[in-house]
Amino acid sequence: MLGIIGSSLDEPIEFTDSPNPVSVTELDANRVEIGLNFGGGLGLSLGRSVLFGDVRYNAGLTDFNRDAKSKNQVFAITAGLRIPLGGR
């Protein structure tokens, strides 16, 4: 899976939740990031419920900051129990 996340090039992106608000242009961040996602999972049937696990990795292909070599890399593990809510 190839993912592209971005925003309109004519709109500034503002971060106002901090005491010192900044915009993306002040941070010199790229507006578009391209990355690859890999992952897989397994499920074990427990009667009507399913115990499941999932592992995923996201490798950023582009730098998110123009001034430094900085790529996103995310490793995620998920586990849970799926319980049917319907009458089947």
Topology:
Elements (H helix, E strand, L loop, with lengths): L1 E4 L8 E2 L6 E2 H4 L5 E14 L2 E12 L12 E10 L6
Antiparallel strand pairs: 1-4, 2-3, 4-5, 5-6
Please give a structural write-up.
There is one protein chain. Helix content is 5%, strand content 50%. With 88 residues, the protein is mainly beta. It has one domain. The chain has a 4-stranded antiparallel beta sheet with strand order 1-4-5-6, with no helix packed on it. The chain has a two-stranded antiparallel sheet with strand order 2-3.
Rounded to the nearest angstrom, the radius of gyration is 19 Å
The H/E string reads: EEEHEEE
Q: Helical region count? A: 1
User: Separation of termini?
Assistant: 33 Å
Low-confidence stretches: none
What's the overall average pLDDT, rounded? Answer: 78
Give me the secondary-structure category. mainly beta
Strand content: over 45%
What share of the residues lie within helices?
under 10%
Whole-number total of structural domains: 1
Largest sheet composition: 4 strands, antiparallel
Strand order of the largest sheet: 1-4-5-6
Number of beta-strand segments: 6
Which shape, going by the Cα principal axes? elongated
What kind of assembly state do the chains in view correspond to?
single chain
Put the structure in a nutshell.
With 88 residues, the protein is mostly beta strands.
